[in-house]
Specification:
- The chain is an alpha/beta fold and about 300 residues long.
- The chain is built from 11 helices and 8 strands.
- Strand 3, helix 4 and strand 4 form a beta-alpha-beta unit.
- The radius of gyration is 20 Å and the shape is globular.
């Protein structure tokens, strides 16, 4: 009888652990995203969108086919007959309106701009989020669309924030056509990030729990946490990269930026923005942020 009780207790504990692992996997792959209306309002409140300027901009709404069978909702801002363009990629839970604050930097320097909603975000299709694993191929589809518009000789770069930053890094490793990459507050490794967030948000310190959630995610969606590790791609990546991070970021630790910068070989730049939390580097340091991008693009002969 005692042995049966112990077996039942062990099975209950194991079931609870698996259930909690499933819940954490769901938190990762099914984040609570915001609508276009909410993100537009938030961008207005924060001064990241000037409504008068926004409505006056020449823009085209487009639907880009994802290789996974759904449409990506995008906005294209042509810049005369420029052969230069940048794709700006937003962070998790947001929509393309999270990318608008960076647009003027590039528009006034002669770039056309493409912004879009990630899969499982905004008005794009897709049923789950993969922290860049599938998103990098959606970004490639956006680049394909841009090259079709501008020609094979177009000079195209990417700029990403948070999950968008991790996405542009992973994408840059699979598409040699891209000329530059700017990553702002991206994570170096998903397993490391989720272990950190688990401790910070839920006060749970357990690498085994993260591994369990990773395995469950692999079974459910086809990717595991170890499949998302931008830092592992940097050693063999020749592309010029500008790394940006807020010095007070406690959502994605600033150390992740430093680690990636040190790992990167070849042309690389780093800007640790003062007095800035997660995704606030530009808002708090607009002139310096633009100056660092100017320096970067001039040094690599894009400007």
């Amino acid at each position: 009888m005692v042995e049966l009780t112990v077996i039942i207790l062990v099975l209950c504990i194991l079931s609870l652990i698996i259930y909690e692992g499933y819940k954490f996997s769901t938190i990762v792959t099914q984040p609570k995203t915001m609508t276009h209306e909410t993100t537009y309002s938030k961008a207005l409140e924060r001064g990241n969108i000037d409504e008068k300027i926004w409505t006056s901009l020449d823009k085209k709404e487009v639907k880009i086919n994802s290789p996974y069978g759904y449409n990506l909702n995008a906005l294209y801002f042509p810049n005369d007959k420029s052969k230069k363009a940048v794709i700006i990629v937003h962070g998790i839970t947001w929509t393309l309106y999270g990318s608008v604050k960076y647009m003027d930097i590039f528009l006034k320097r002669g770039f056309s701009v493409l912004i879009y909603d990630h899969r499982n975000h905004g008005k794009s299709g897709g049923t789950n989020t993969s922290f860049g694993y599938y998103e990098k191929y959606d970004l490639k589809a956006c680049a394909d669309w841009l090259f079709d518009q501008l020609g094979k000789d177009a000079v195209i770069g990417v700029h990403g924030e948070s999950m968008g930053a991790a996405t542009v890094l992973q994408y840059s490793a699979i598409d040699p056509r891209i000329k530059f990459c700017i990553e702002d507050c991206g994570y170096s490794d998903a397993t490391e990030l989720f272990t950190y967030r688990l401790l910070k948000d839920y006060h749970i310190k357990s690498s085994l729990f993260v591994k369990l959630a990773s395995y469950i995610t692999k079974v459910r969606t086809g990717w595991s946490f170890k499949d998302v590790s931008p830092i592992k791609l940097l050693k063999d990546l020749d592309l010029p990269i500008l790394f940006i991070h807020g010095d007070s970021d406690d959502y994605v630790p600033t150390k992740m930026c430093v680690d990636m910068y040190e790992e990167k070989k070849g042309i690389k730049y780093k800007y640790i923005a003062p007095c800035s939390a997660h995704a606030d580097s530009y808002n708090n340091n607009k002139e310096e942020y633009e100056s660092r991008i100017d320096e970067f693009l001039k040094d690599i002969h894009i400007l």
